[in-house]
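Troubleshooting entry. Yesterday's outputs looked truncated, so today I'm pasting the complete records for two proteins to confirm everything comes through intact. If either block looks cut off, that's the bug. Protein one:
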Amino acid sequence: MDRKHLVEEMKKKILFRCKDEEQFYLYLYLSLIEEYDDNFPAPAGVSFTETYLPKITYGNIEELLEKAEAKGIERSRAFMELIKHELMHLINLHPIRAASYLKRRRIIPTDDVLNVMNMIADSICNRYIDKKFVDSVGGVEPDATNRTFEEIADEFFANAEKIVLSGGDSGQGNDTDTNGNSGGVGQENGGNKNNSKKKGRGNGKGRKGKNNGNNGGGNSQGQNNGNVSGGGGLSPNDMDRKLIRELVSNPDPNAIREIEKQIQDSVRNLIEKVEKAIGNIPGEIKEIISKWRKCEFFKIEDENVLFTAFQNIERMFVDVSPIARYPAVLPVYRPYSGSTILIIVDTSGSMSSEELEYGFYVIKRLSQKNKILVLQVDTEIKGRAIEIERWRFPDKLEVKGRGGTDFSCLSDLKNYIPATERENIKSVVIFTDGHVVAFPNTNPLPSAAWFGITTDAIPSGPKWIGWHRLVKVESD
């Protein structure tokens, strides 16, 4: 029997054999778009189409059903539990939450990191399915602490080896170059620091069929203290890694929120349709949905003012225009090039990495042809200005969160800027939370236009700094 016929046979059986409390999962499952992929690295997985409609992909489900059957679990029952597991990934929004988590903490989504994220997500999904089935296929041990996905990840990465790499290009690599490293979700049972081993047991072949190594055979050293454990038989790589990597590597922090909003709407619409069809939905599903976070987007108020300054656009009015009729007057913009932008980052404030990253993204987007220098300041200037060439902010940037900032040290600003750049700086942008106790008495770079971007209060300071708020706007 080929795979498609096997799936259709399983559908017929669960239609007649599923329990009353499983009707919701059955109808939700039957509402998904389906595809078959011989190279899919898991028995099945839920992801999204290009328009973010939920879909299920079938891989080698035969092996999983055989494992469960060998342990005394009827094949249609095993199939139903597998489907419930995958639907829980969907309802918990695990792919988008994994991407959001890694992006916020600036963790590069390597194969090992994604294995861990998948394992954490599995431990949550397995709370809701038959423990006997999980054990029969060597699945991840269900998390019994009722913690969130992010809380479990926080504990793991707090105890893991230093894999948080600030700055740089995240999301390097893709699903075509795993080279045998995308092993099964493995054991994370380290009692000793530096001694936990991750032993995968999956045999996935990589999404594009190029993963030909011993999948999951190697050891991955870490410092996990052993709160997430399990084998890889259930779903070693069933989260959409391509989507996660694309989102983490996107330079615009708002992009991930826009997709999260589309995915939330898509999943919510599907659930509402199922609810209308069967009359109700399980309490655990209502609880999960109630905890979905509202999508908030970053926005810098009066961004056009920054654009004008960064581009050195001089606004003029003329009486004659090829498209204007007398006495109409149209504005004409004349751009200049070759200027440098200096960014001053308040590292003692409480700006989050996401807020800073969005601010840097906006500046890079508005000033793609400009050179950008960065200085870090709290009560003193932290070293000489460095030039950045990437979308992300500098590797060594670290926000301490100590509170009030003394910008009076900026009076010596020129000493920290390369001599060849001092006269070329046309715009200075300050990133701060607004809690500034002092500024220089005089403008240290009077030839430049000064702007401040604040996430909280607009500080009382010199008039030569024009302030803009970086705010979060909640989606409709």
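Protein two, checking that the full record survives here as well:
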Amino acid sequence: MVLYRASIEYNPTNMRLLAAAITNTFKYGLKVIYIGICLLLLILGAFIGWQNSTGIMLIAFGCFLIPSVNAMEKSQANRAIKQLNGQILHVSYTFYDDSFKCANAKEENLSPYSSLIRLVDGKGFFYLFPNAGQAYMIDKSALKPPQENQFKEFLAQKTGLQWTIPLSLMTLNLKQLQHNRKNTRLSKKK
């Protein structure tokens, strides 16, 4: 018996959002370390001073690296967009009592809920992670019936996981980080 249906159209915009969600969910620590290194270079350069060529080089290098903090997710998104070859991929999801189906024009896969390792509630989309390098992206506006809270409760019960939120530098706190880790099934690897 079908309990919920949903869908998504993978276009370049959505592929970029998906890559950002994957990176911010499982590779967030690398971003924080990267930004920390950039800030350290800037602070060291300022401490050494503008009059010294080493100080100027450290500041310049720190400034040069900061814009590339999202390079990993941009690269991942660009590879996926290139694979689409200008096409839009329509994916539909069907949620049953014991499993869910993901289907597109070429294939369909039936997966148990236990295959998911993390549930993320993002702005406009749900992300269901089968591993640390992939996610099923569900457009909230395409959910049928349009009962977001009941859908979230249903998946939380079926997976045994609580929903997490995407991390950001502005909202980062240890309590949220601990909650996210606690609600990740660690037995699956990329």
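Both blocks look complete. Sanity check on protein two: The mean pLDDT is 83.
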